[in-house]
Design brief:
two-stranded antiparallel ribbon; mainly alpha; about 160 residues; single chain; 9 helices
Length: about 160
């Protein structure tokens, strides 16, 4: 979720238009708050979790069109999503001054899920912390000031 306000900051918070080669691919939306909570809980019960792989996911698999609609509903924003052809995406990002290795990473991260299919969801957050994972709508509400363009009044 934090990628929306960091890696994709110019698209989401400035241009209000996410342009990615993601098509209708569905992504796993997880909040770093949940990742941290699982890590902290597991470290406090190290004997129970030693040697285990804990795959942390959110509770939602959403495409970017659904994600922007979720954010818009949650906070009254007006963010749009458009699918981009990978070549057009790469050329646009290079014109923006981004470095080719980074552009290729971002391209692959958003294009490959179109081929790989929807990633599975896990119940790890619930099992380890005893609470449900945060939703994208919750994240949007907590960062309302960013999604509405009021970056100067951040908490």
């Amino acid at each position: 979720m934090q990628n929306l306000t960091t890696t994709l900051k110019i698209d989401v918070l400035v241009n209000r238009h996410i342009r990615l080669p993601a098509g209708d691919a569905r992504f796993n939306w997880v909040d770093v708050e949940d990742v941290g909570a699982v890590a902290a809980s597991a470290m406090c019960r190290l004997d129970e979790y030693r040697g285990r792989v804990l795959e942390v996911t959110g509770s939602e698999s959403l495409g970017f069109a659904e994600a922007t609609a979720t954010i818009n509903r949650a906070v009254g924003a007006d963010i749009r999503y458009s699918n981009r052809n990978p070549v057009t995406f790469i050329l646009d990002r290079l014109r923006r001054g981004e470095q080719l290795p980074w552009v290729m990473v971002v391209t692959l991260l958003h294009f490959l899920p179109r081929i790989q299919g929807t990633p599975p969801l896990t119940a790890t957050v619930q099992e380890v912390t005893g609470r449900a994972p945060r939703t994208l709508a919750m994240f949007a509400r907590d960062n309302r000031h960013l999604f509405l363009g009021n970056r100067e009044d951040a908490p």
